[in-house]
Design a protein that fits this description.
BirA Bifunctional Protein, domain 2; single chain; binds magnesium ion; 8-stranded mixed beta sheet; alpha+beta; 3 domains; globular; binds 4-amino-1,4-dioxobutan-2-aminium adenosine-5'-monophosphate
Length: 499
């Protein structure tokens, strides 16, 4: 057998005999030839089998989508071929001939695809997202490793809440109720007092009883924590961090972004300085006549878009009725399905938008921003915006109140542009033991499980702080995805735990 080569390396093997292992992704047949589109996880390659190869031509004709196979053949560079080369097959062994693979070129709705997530991952689009996710993780770790941070693994089983009792997942721990970690932060603060600059990267859990396109119940967070850092330092760090992540994806994944249909122009604008505003200024934005007028305009535009799509759908249906059965018709069916889904979403949004616009106009200082407000605010900027100084009463107990106005805290949220909303939440921490204990009492927290946390303020307390970047929200933004569910291999959502 000739050397086993991955599809991504085929171009270096022109005119050589190679062996390829993979799965049948698609197939076209003429009378005397079969074109097998083979994928191996590193790319796809067209492999040509001729009828005179009687030993396996029939097998090639019979194999269905996702049949597993090993083949050998000669590489031919050919600019017209997808991927830039093809293989003239000399040997073919079907490892398993598959019939009736559930995910076909025919139209599938999102529910069906989610139910078949274990197979859906094989689609080029899903694979591209997972590759980008991987690069964002690598870039994130590289960023902190390169700046002298130490990676700290924080526990997943924790005795108490950190981000509000409302979203805790309880676990039975030998008869005692403990909880899945909502954040690694509190433990990371202990590590920062030991090592100075630390970060953690791990899964976090929130029993979010909301079915939104931004919420998972299990998500991954990258959290740095820095001794002696104050809120401005944290803003600088978060800004440099996000620029680094976006640059890494732009450098390494042009092809994948194109495959995803991501317009890279908005990503290319991501550079410092990011706009920095206060919570109060963000509230003023929601109230401003300018923003209100722009929202009405956008709504009108979207109403027209719905009308245009209705016409386009009718046109596609007509085309489909006239198209010959098979590939052309399947493709139209998929287009119709996608357009229907997009239209349903837009219609839903258009229907609820007048209420959102009203809510923005009447937003009361002191309330937390919901997803709709975040969308509106983030749309006003072409870069991520950093918002500081949220009202103390809507934020976590550990945040330090501002010395100039104790009603607000020294926190920051970063909202990604294009309407994506919050990707980072962070703050300077309360470093005074008495003030922290007082705040915990106000919040009616049981101090017993937090004695160790108070110790950090009793023995050599210093100003410090950090933030958490939600990996999946960042992937959704960078990839330009409508919903967070495609950013993680097996999403956990309210109402979904299979597969
Ligand atoms: O703003 P959050 O709740 O902040 C913390 O957990 C802090 N302890 C972090 C810190 O200071 N070390 O969450 C941080 C980020 C959010 O900005 C968001 O990107 C993401 O985590 N996130 C979620 N992502 C997906 N699904 C959810 N349910 C999320 N909740 C938060
Ligand atoms: Mg937050």
């Amino acid at each position: 057998m000739s050397d086993i080569v991955e599809i991504r390396d085929l171009r270096n093997h022109d005119r050589q005999e190679v062996t390829l292992r993979g799965w049948l992704y698609g197939k076209r047949t003429g009378g005397k030839v079969a074109f097998l589109l083979v994928r191996d996880g590193t790319g796809t390659c067209q492999c040509v089998v001729e009828a005179r190869q009687e030993a396996f031509f029939k097998d090639a004709l019979a194999a269905g989508q996702e049949s597993s196979l090993v083949l050998s053949g000669t590489v031919r560079l050919d600019e017209r071929a997808p991927g830039g080369c093809e293989i003239a097959v000399t040997r073919l062994r079907i490892l398993q001939a598959v019939e009736n693979y559930p995910i076909t070129r025919k139209a599938h709705g999102t529910d069906f695809l989610m139910e078949h997530r274990h197979l859906w991952l094989r689609s080029p689009r899903q694979a591209a997202i997972l590759r980008i996710r991987n690069s964002i993780i690598r870039a994130a770790r590289g960023f902190f490793d390169g700046r002298g941070f130490t990676l700290i693994d924080t526990p997943i089983l924790s005795p108490g809440a950190a981000e509000g009792a409302g979203t805790l997942f309880p676990v039975d721990y030998f008869g005692e109720t403990v909880f899945l970690a909502q954040t690694g932060q509190l433990y990371l603060e202990a590590a920062a007092m030991a090592l100075g600059k630390v970060y953690c990267f791990g899964p976090t859990f929130r029993a979010e009883k909301s079915k939104t396109r931004r919420h998972l119940t299990e998500f991954w967070m990258i959290e740095p924590e820095v001794a002696f850092a104050e809120i401005q330092d944290l803003q600088d760090l978060a800004e440099a961090f996000v620029c680094h992540l976006v640059q890494a994806v732009l450098q390494e994944h042009r092809g994948d972004l194109e495959l995803l249909g991501r317009n890279v122009a908005p990503l290319e604008k991501i550079a410092p300085p990011f706009p920095r505003i206060t919570y109060s200024q963000a509230v003023d934005l929601l109230h401003s006549a300018d923003v209100q007028a722009r929202l009405e305009e956008e709504l009108e535009k979207d109403r027209k878009q719905v009308q245009a799509w209705i016409a386009e759908l009718a046109h596609l249906e007509e085309q489909k009725a006239r198209a010959p059965q098979g590939w052309a018709q399947d493709k139209l069916a998929q287009q119709i399905q996608d357009l229907r889904e997009a239209m349903r979403e837009l219609e839903h949004s258009v229907e609820h938008r007048p209420q959102h616009i009203r809510d923005a106009r009447e937003f009361v200082w002191g309330n937390d921003f919901g997803g709709d407000e975040e969308t509106i605010i983030s749309r006003q900027f072409d870069r991520p915006v950093l918002i500081t100084g949220y009202p103390k009463k809507i934020k976590a107990f550990y945040m330090k109140p501002s010395p100039s106005n104790p009603e607000v805290v020294l926190n920051m949220d970063m909202l990604a542009p294009e309407g994506y909303g919050e990707i980072i939440g962070g703050s300077q921490r309360e470093d005074d033991p008495d003030a922290l204990e007082k705040r915990m009492t106000e919040e009616k927290m049981n101090p017993a499980p937090y004695q160790w946390y108070l110790d950090l303020r009793r023995y050599g307390t210093v100003p410090h702080g950090g933030f958490g970047l939600g990996l999946e929200r960042t992937v959704a933004w960078v990839c330009g995805l409508k919903h967070i569910r495609e950013t993680i291999p097996f999403p956990r959502l309210m109402g979904r735990i299979y597969p």
